[in-house]
Write a structure and sequence with these properties.
- It is a single chain.
- It is built from 22 helices and 4 strands.
- A two-stranded antiparallel ribbon has the order 1-2.
- Helix 2 packs parallel to helix 7, helix 6 packs across helix 7 and helix 6 packs parallel to helix 9.
């Protein structure tokens, strides 16, 4: 069947089929040797945290600065004097602008009394707990019931994903990515019968606008109450901002485009760290207008394909797959997706690992290992040209950093450097399109009666005999 026909058929299914089977009705999977898995998980998590802690201590001059957190802290601290400076001044060690909505400033304001040193520890502990919560929720969304085995699998997986480059850099920069991801995953992982489902999506969107895409996802999957709750909560965060920070809120919501553009004045959109579609085109082309036009066209095509596939996956009971597709899409289409924003690789890894464990096929284990190696962090001493420099600190670099960066060096890349420097994006697009196409082509929409915990479909369709056996 041709691609246009598959897409049209999928859209018709989403619009005309009976209401979805409510998500969260079954959790019937479990792990074998639960107590042994729990012991292994505890040992692995303790070892991973110990190694990370030692590394962070030995390299504390770079891994404990938390430059982004200093921006949040200084920006919110300025509210004690007046609101006018929040969106007009630069803050932190690197003098960067604060560009998040007023609700995010209110969230941080209650943490200012603990001081910057205390805030560092608070964000580190919060992020580590959030990482564990994301892994726990991901296994739950795949249909694994609460048990010692799930706890062990969570801890063992935590010990691995702690070393993903986006995770390590989130910890190093003092970023909020893991906390926001945990809020989204916890909310979306709730059964559809929960009346307050959608509150987490609304709060995350109020803190950072990117999660607004999940309101569209909830609506496309016919969870209109949850979508309404999310939208209402988001509007509530705006209202709260106007009540408590009226001047700053008026400035932000009236000049939102200008405020967000202030980032590019300090950190160009085309810098290596921006692994978004727009960042790729800015590195490729000198023309800002042409790169913006190509970005919009590419994002429109990706959004249609991925959102329809994500909705269809959800309706078929593959909730984690649908959520991951939408999360990765938000990274691709956002004007700026720094490499540490790519924490969506964590639930994606759980999804891959689940397939490897359930299907026991060598291909899935190879894919899981390759995914880990590619998005993992490696202790390297690199200069601005991506070359080994023993005089530099040993930092957790990913493979994308093996090319020249900053100072417009990205505009002088050769072909090899271009592919390496955009590899997060290229791999993300390739995997997303491949999975989306597979979902559209092989997945039956509107649920199969097992809810979200039905066995996810393989990327490649099963042989008919195996399918019949699985259904019997």
């Amino acid at each position: 069947m041709s691609f246009p026909r598959v897409l049209v058929t999928s859209c018709r299914e989403l619009c005309t089929r009976a209401p979805r089977t409510p998500y969260g009705t079954h959790r019937d999977k479990t792990f074998g040797n639960q107590q042994r898995l729990l012991r292994i998980g505890i040992a692995a998590a303790v070892l991973a945290l110990a190694v990370w802690g030692i590394w962070a201590y030995l390299q504390r001059t770079v891994m404990w600065n938390m430059l982004d957190l200093s921006v949040y802290y200084n920006a919110v601290d300025s509210l004690k004097d007046n609101q006018d400076a929040l969106y007009t001044s630069n803050f932190g060690t690197w003098k960067l602008p604060f560009i998040y909505p007023p609700f995010s400033a209110l969230t941080f304001f209650g943490l200012v009394p603990m001081g910057f040193a205390g805030l560092k520890w608070f964000m580190t502990v919060t992020s580590l707990l959030a990482l564990a919560a994301v892994v726990w929720t991901s296994w739950g969304m795949l249909g694994y019931r609460r048990s010692a085995g799930r706890a062990g699998a969570t801890l063992a997986t935590f010990a691995v994903v702690l070393w993903f480059e986006p995770v390590v850099w989130t910890l190093e920069w003092g970023q909020v990515n893991l906390a926001l991801l945990a809020v989204l995953m916890f909310d979306l992982g709730q059964p559809d019968t929960r009346r307050w489902k959608g509150v987490g999506v609304g709060l995350a969107a109020g803190f950072k606008l990117t999660p607004l895409i999940f309101i569209v996802y909830l609506a496309m999957t016919r969870r209109f109450r949850a979508a309404g709750v999310a939208l209402g909560t988001f509007l509530g965060t705006i209202g709260l901002g106007f009540v408590l920070l009226p001047s700053a809120s008026a400035k932000y919501w009236s000049d939102i485009a200008e405020i967000n553009n202030r980032v590019s004045e300090q950190l160009p959109v085309g810098t290596l760290n921006n692994q978004s579609v727009q960042g790729m085109f800015r590195r490729m082309l000198d023309s800002e207008s042409l790169s913006s036009m190509l970005w919009l066209l590419c994002c429109a095509a990706l959004a249609i394909l991925v959102m329809v596939a994500a909705a269809k996956a959800s309706l078929a009971g593959q909730e984690l797959l649908g959520v991951v597709l939408v999360g990765v899409l938000s990274l691709l289409v956002s004007p700026i997706s720094w490499s540490h924003h790519w924490v969506w690789v964590v639930p994606a890894f759980v999804l891959l690992l689940h397939h490897a464990l359930r299907l026991r096929r060598r291909m899935w284990w190879y894919a899981t290992a390759a995914f880990l190696a590619f998005y993992g962090t490696w202790p390297l001493s690199l200069d601005v040209n991506g070359h080994w420099d023993g005089g530099q600190k040993l930092q957790p670099w990913g493979l994308i950093w093996l090319v020249p960066r900053d100072g417009k060096r990205e505009n002088r890349w050769n072909v090899w450097q271009y592919f390496v420097g955009n590899s997060y994006l290229f791999v993300g697009i390739a995997l997303t399109v491949l999975v989306a196409w597979s979902v559209l082509r092989t997945t039956a929409a509107a649920g199969t009666g097992a809810g979200a915990e039905a066995e996810p479909a393989d990327v490649a369709p099963r042989p008919r005999a195996e399918k019949v056996a699985a259904e019997s």
